[in-house]
Amino acid sequence: MRVLVVNAGSSSLKVRLLDHRDELLADEDLPAAEHGFEESEARSIVERLRGVDAVGHRFVHGGPRLRGPARLDPALEEYLRSLIDLAPLHQPRALAGVELMRRLLPRAPAVVCVDTAFHATLPAAASTYAVPREWRERYGVRRYGFHGLSHAYAARRAAELLGEPVDRLRTVTCHLGAGASLAAVRAGVSVDTTMGFTPMEGVVMATRSGSVDPGMLLWLQDHAGLTAAATSDALDRRSGVLALAGTADMREVLRRAGSGSGDADARLALEVYVHRLRAGVAAMAAAMNGLDALVFTGGVGEHAAEVRGEAAGGLAFLGVAVDAGRNGAAEADADVSAPSARVRTLVVRAREDVEIARQVRSVLGG
Length: 366
Description:
By secondary structure, this protein is α/β, with parallel strands linked by helices. The protein has two domains: about 5-115, Nucleotidyltransferase, domain 5; about 165-350, ATPase, nucleotide binding domain (Nucleotidyltransferase, domain 5, 2-Layer Sandwich). It has 15 helices and 13 strands. It has helices at about 40-50, 75-80, 90-105, 125, 135-140, 150-160, 215-225, 230-235, 240-245, 250-260, 265-285, 300-305, 305-315, 325-330, 350-365; strands at about 5-10, 10-20, 25-35, 35, 55-60, 70, 110-115, 170-175, 180-185, 190-195, 295, 335, 345. Strands 4-3-2-1-5-7-6 form a seven-stranded mixed beta sheet, sandwiched between helices. Helix 6 (about 150-160) crosses helix 15 and helix 11 crosses helix 13 (about 305-315). The relative contact order is 0.12.
């Protein structure tokens, strides 16, 4: 089965065609238009991609009902539309991608693959907020978790690289990109994660704050007159590494932090980022009563050797240690562990497209 993977982002529609062995046959990006995607350009791309058997659509949010991949039908599409207010940046773009591909490939069955589904297995202790019952029952407030497609693939790929069955491993997967989250994956199943009801919770990210004291936000609203919209904008787009270093680009932060000038802002940004990252890894390991493998994936996770090294440097008590030479030269997929380390540390290339294609085949039987 040749699967066309459609990943609708805020600025582009990423289209990947994979064959039955998950070999990448085509890789195209379509720029976003004002209200969706340009159909004429998309049509020319699809016409070049001959032999599409099925389409897999990535959705960020599946809400409380969608706990796995599902074949798209009108009822499911309407349900996904009802979740727009939970993911206002991502959900409309994904729905626009569905509509576009339905026009261009009307005979190809479509499957929805959602990031939140991987974390549907969280135990109640990990998914429940200690907030009033009405909030939880009437409004469905709970921890959903995100980046599930990436975490699922990274955990399974790590097991392959280690030559171990995934059901024997306790793995912490660190998806570190512009958005960042960690997951505790025991026997291939997510049992904890750092993101919550929204993608703002958890570790420090490029422009998102990660977890902050909600009392601080209430205080700022009272004393600084911040509106809900202004607060959301600040936490989502003007915080994180950007707020500390003046840039959201980790490559620039690392360059400035390590330069002879000793850029204090860049160094602080790196230290805060790594401090929260270490704490998150330790928390995820605690959720599994131990750790067998630590996996770095995503843009920062794959390419920032210094971040990996500094994070590992504070996790020796868990049995984590990296080899400086291996870590510095690593290109995914690679084992960068020190020979004596009890916990294996791996760098895995992010392949959400492979995970989506796998899920499409599981639904359609291909």
